[in-house]
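Subject: Interface between my chains keeps coming out wrong

I've been trying for a while to get a sensible model of this assembly. When I model each chain on its own everything looks fine, but I need the whole thing in one frame so I can look at the contacts. Pasting all components below, labels as-is. Any help appreciated, I'm running out of ideas.
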Amino acid sequence: SQQGEEDPQALSIQEGENATMNCSYKTSINNLQWYRQNSGRGLVHLILIRSNEREKHSGRLRVTLDTSKKSSSLLITASRAADTASYFCATDELRKAAGNKLTFGGGTRVLVKP
Amino acid sequence: GAGVSQSPSNKVTEKGKDVELRCDPISGHTALYWYRQSLGQGLEFLIYFQGNSAPDKSGLPSDRFSAERTGGSVSTLTIQRTQQEDSAVYLCASSRFGLAGGGETQYFGPGTRLLVL
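Reply #2:
Try treating it as a single job with all components included. I did that and got this:
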């Protein structure tokens, strides 16, 4: 079963605009990661934020984490047509035996129009 | 260096047949994971191998599903007596250590698209 819910499910923006998507999860976590998927194939890691961090930046990406609300957001600034993809949040649970198993949200499909 | 590779890219099979899906992880990566992505269920964890430890099979949906990892490298996911609901993209990933507590990037292969007729 999926840990997280993502919203919106789909997002359509013009090139140059910012894209914001949100992820909520249910259990206590060690870390939260965001991945991108093009054309329904392999996922590419974007950024990881640890449970003791509140905000992280990587290039045009900004991630926030609010563990009290069990939620995270991903902001893509100055979007490009190449950012068109599906974006997934993924969590690993705060359980000793969980290892590195990821639980994914439902994903947000982003379309950036040129 | 080479990433995670999977074969075949696509597989069409008839209901009731067995299929084998292969994953070659990044060389030196200790941990290997299988996930399944389908329209109805999204991305689901199936099984996780870490070094010589017993695999975490908690995500396998039924006893028709099994996986092996030989020599700590290549893995094969086997689905016996396939059903139409097994149709999905099967994704393999590897990470360097597979540490308890997570926090590692997982590197995904391109997936195998399975269609059961």
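Reply #3:
Confirming on my end. The mean pLDDT of chain A is 89.
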